[in-house]
Specification:
Layout (H helix, E strand, L loop, with lengths): L1 H5 L11 H30 L4 E2 L5 E4 L2 E4 L9 E6 L11 H7 L6 H5 L3 E7 L3 H11 L5 E3 L5 H4 L6 H4 L4 E3 L2 E3 L10 E7 L5 E8 L8 H6 L35
């Protein structure tokens, strides 16, 4: 399987001397620095966004019982919500969301000690969420918004009536329903002040959360890059990859 993946797009890179490579690499470095400075500028603009007060009472099903949006902060002032695509009728979580979620558990101690709570929210009932979490072996908090308007108000879930219209609102724009689904991915951030008031500070959708996927960031630096036919077309849930054939060399770390 690994060899098949690698042969999809054979490389056609020019082979040059070390001196020529260094010259080309320095040109790329200048572009990478430009990208870093642009990322810093975007980050500053993101932090400067105005906020919207959340006046609606949202209630979620959690393993510890019913909780409000304010309760989900877990005593911290900042909450980051990953809108995980798992609808009430779905049998398994979205493959792309699952890839992203494979990267979350290791971040929790660092985020929690920096006054940030990270949580996933899906519209599937809690028992379906818990079953899929056990299958994947994840530990991060994950709650259900089933019966709540939360997913609809933050434009990541769509009813059959929504999808029957000419347009649906996603990623801050009206898009054709054939480009949508009943569930779509997103990331939202909230702040809770000392008075208990909650504010919506940020949301991103579509590929906006891609930088959370460390696997993609590593692939972007590998010789063949993502080597994909369409966005993340190569990705499977981590328990669905075929085992390596007998005799295939394994990592020295295993």
């Amino acid at each position: 399987m690994d060899a098949t993946v690698s042969s999809k797009n054979p490389p056609e890179n020019q082979v040059v001397s070390r001196e020529e490579w260094l010259e080309a690499r320095r040109k790329l470095l200048a572009l990478e620095k430009e990208e870093t400075h642009l990322r810093d500028k975007v980050r500053a603009e993101r932090q400067a966004l105005p906020w919207v007060k959340v006046d609606k009472d949202y209630v979620f099903d959690t393993p510890a019982g019913k909780k409000t949006l304010a309760d989900l902060f877990d005593g911290r002032s900042q909450l980051v919500v990953y809108h995980f695509m798992l609808g009430p009728e779905w049998e398994a979580g979205c493959t792309g969301c699952s890839l992203l979620s494979d990267h979350l558990d290791g971040t929790l101690p660092h985020l929690n000690h920096h006054d940030v709570t990270l949580i996933a929210v899906s519209r599937a009932p809690l028992e379906k969420i818990e079953a899929y979490r056990r299958r994947m072996g994840w530990k991060f908090p994950w709650v259900s918004s089933y019966g709540s308007d939360f997913n609809f108000d933050y434009h990541v879930s769509f009813t059959k009536e929504d999808l029957a219209k000419d347009k649906v609102f996603y990623n801050f724009a009206a898009i054709p329903p054939e480009q949508a689904n009943d569930e779509l991915p997103g990331l939202s951030a909230f702040y809770r002040n000392g008075k208990g008031e909650v504010f919506h500070t940020y949301s991103s959708y579509a590929r906006g959360g891609e930088e959370l996927i460390g696997t993609l960031m590593i692939l972007d630096r590998a010789p063949l890059g993502r080597n994909e036919e369409s966005t993340m077309s190569f990705v499977k849930r981590h328990d669905e990859y075929e085992p390596k054939p007998e005799g295939t060399a394994s990592s020295c770390c295993h």
